[in-house]
Specification:
The protein is built from no helices and 20 strands. By secondary structure, the chain is mainly beta.
Length: 241
């Protein structure tokens, strides 16, 4: 199984790949060879999140139970948060992990993270301080947090109740750094939401991935339509623009 893959947009000799539970590797020659780049995490998700700093891809963020930052293309890592989950839980599978990282493209230092146990946190200062902003959201798996391309305090969170046998669609928007959240899933089919993108040329236009295909909105999520005419109603887990 493969999970996150990043290619440095300023120098494609640098490639980052991972397999299960945060086993991260880096290449300095376009993928011909790889060496381990995993931070010293205690636990990591089956699909551990990895993200570039927008405009500075030599800086990367990696999610275990804490958020880690590298400023030297994953040669070394520094933990920039405490454990942001509710702990490892019980059983034989790994839980209590970060599931998504959102790095604002417009507000330097504004970070967002979500966890598999329903927590959402944000930092205004690149991890120096953190605020828990998920208290009013459903206690469900946070699949994605996508920062707004131009508004520094705005973001959208998608959640999934699949683990709980729950099929309701969960999509929420904040315009005030998570102090309040507005549900924007009205009209969507009952299915987990997995990823969401803003159109950077028109941020009122949204693209949403769900367990039953793709949807889009032209009014910030007030209404939704099926995207395209021939895409199957199959699970979509990741979007790129």
């Amino acid at each position: 199984d493969g999970h996150y893959v990043l290619v440095d947009p300023t120098d494609n000799a640098f490639v980052y790949v991972e397999y299960q539970y945060g086993n991260l590797f880096r290449s300095t020659n376009g993928g011909s060879n790889f060496t381990s780049a995993r931070p010293p995490v205690l636990r990591a998700n089956w699909s551990a999140p990895l993200a570039f700093s927008p405009g500075t891809p030599s800086t990367l963020y990696f999610g275990g139970a804490r958020l880690w930052r590298s400023t030297d293309r994953a040669q070394s890592w520094t933990a920039i948060s405490p454990d942001l989950s509710d702990g490892p839980g019980s059983g034989t599978l790994t839980y209590g992990t970060l599931t998504t990282i959102g790095v604002s493209p417009t507000a330097s230092g504004r970070l967002w993270v979500g966890t598999d146990d329903g927590n959402v946190w944000t930092s205004p200062d690149d991890g120096a301080t953190w605020t828990d902003v998920g208290g009013s959201l459903p206690d469900r798996w946070v699949t994605r947090i996508t920062p707004h391309p131009t508004e520094p305090l705005a973001a959208i969170a998608t959640l999934s109740g699949y683990r709980w046998g729950e099929d309701v669609a969960q999509v929420y928007r904040t315009d005030d750094a998570g102090a309040t959240w507005t549900p924007i899933a009205s009209g969507l089919p009952d299915a987990p939401a997995n990823d969401i993108l803003y159109d950077p040329e028109d941020p009122s236009r949204l693209f949403l991935a769900t367990d039953v295909g793709m949807f889009w909105s032209q009014d910030r999520g007030q209404s939704w339509s099926v995207l395209g005419t021939s895409l199957p109603a199959a699970p979509v887990n990741d979007l790129d623009l």
